[in-house]
Amino acid sequence: MPEESVLLGVEGRTGRVTLNRPRAINALTHEMVTRISGALDAWEQDPRITAVVITGAGERGLCAGGDIRAIREDVRTGGGDASTAFWRDEYRLNARIARCSKPYVALMDGIVMGGGVGVSAHGSVRIVTERSRVAMPETGIGFVPDVGGTYLLALAPGQLGTHLALTGAAVGPADALLCGLADHFVPADRLPALLSDLSRADVADVLPSYVRDAPPGELGANREWIDHCYAADTVEEIVDRLLDSGVTAAKETAGTLLGKSPTALKVTLAALRRARRLGSLEAVLAQEYRVSCAALHHPDFAEGVRAQVIDKDRAPRWTPASLGEVTDDEVAGFFAPLGDRELSWPVGDSAREAPR
């Protein structure tokens, strides 16, 4: 029999979620999201459970995101209905994690990208290791950061979140801490002992003895040019500032941006700026659902997945091909209301401020 894609169980005082698709770096499926949500329903009501812990099977990472190959195929054969249904439940789970009434401990070891950020970085106790690589890389496949990613990145200091959202760059532990995507650094070889202790005692009593200083990161030294360049009003001006900065790393970043989907870049910048004004995580997730539904049917998504995942030629042909060809009206269309298809919340779940 095939192994279960997510393992759920109770170990002492903890409810344990183990994402269990190691060959796919634990990429999320709709079934996995549904089962995690059901487990949270049960564990939040169980007085024996004092914390929820999420980990990933295998050595490569917690979770590489959603199964984008399957999403592309769903658009091709089923019109995308299965994917939008998946996102509806996934985004609700992201908000649910942020509101969890018990400590939600995410071991963000290894690769944590896209949907992996959604099931970890909204938690109350987010732990990174020296192996952590955290990213929202959606612009490289013609998509836009979702799963509450624009909410988290909009809260990052200065323009660091804008830099990460547009470039899709992966950051290590120190930079994840700096950007507010994680809370604590624990060496990877200490995780088994940490899990064992969490099963017997409260998080607040266990964690301090495991936390260490993270190895130095890279973003802090680049804050000056990042904050200046990404404060521009448009993607075109951001690129111009990067090219004119006189900083080698900034010029290289301009080249990175020019290889991404022009449409995705412009929509991402607009989504981040809007997210800063929306306030609550739920409001931002509702916006992301509109954008995701629109991006699903834009030609750049299918082309980006083809180039990066299927053919792997790394040579996407974007439509349109340049930033100047993407109009303001086209960007605004990604934010158009969905009518009765809007992301809604179950009765009793108010759209309140997330606890971060």
Structure, briefly:
It contains 16 helices and nine strands. It is an alpha/beta fold and 356 residues long.
Identify the CATH homologous superfamily: 2-enoyl-CoA Hydratase, Chain A, domain 1
Mean pLDDT: 95
Number of strands: 9
Shape: globular
CATH topology: 2-enoyl-CoA Hydratase, Chain A, domain 1
Q: Evaluate the radius of gyration.
A: 20 Å
Instruction: Please write the string of helix (H) and strand (E) elements.
Output: EEHEEHHEEHEEHHHEHHHHHHHHH
Question: Distance between termini?
Answer: 41 Å
**Architecture, according to CATH?**
Alpha-Beta Complex
Low-pLDDT stretches are 350-356
Going by helix content, strand content and strand pairing, the class is: alpha/beta
Just give the CATH class.
Alpha Beta
Number of domains as seen in the coordinates: 1
Task: Describe the strand arrangement of the main beta sheet, using strand numbers.
Answer: 1-2-3-5-7-9
Helical residue percent band: 40-55%
Strand content: 5-15%
Largest sheet: 6 strands, mixed
Number of helices: 16
Key terms:
alpha/beta, 2-enoyl-CoA Hydratase, Chain A, domain 1, six-stranded mixed β-sheet, three-stranded parallel β-sheet, disordered C terminus, hydrolase, isomerase
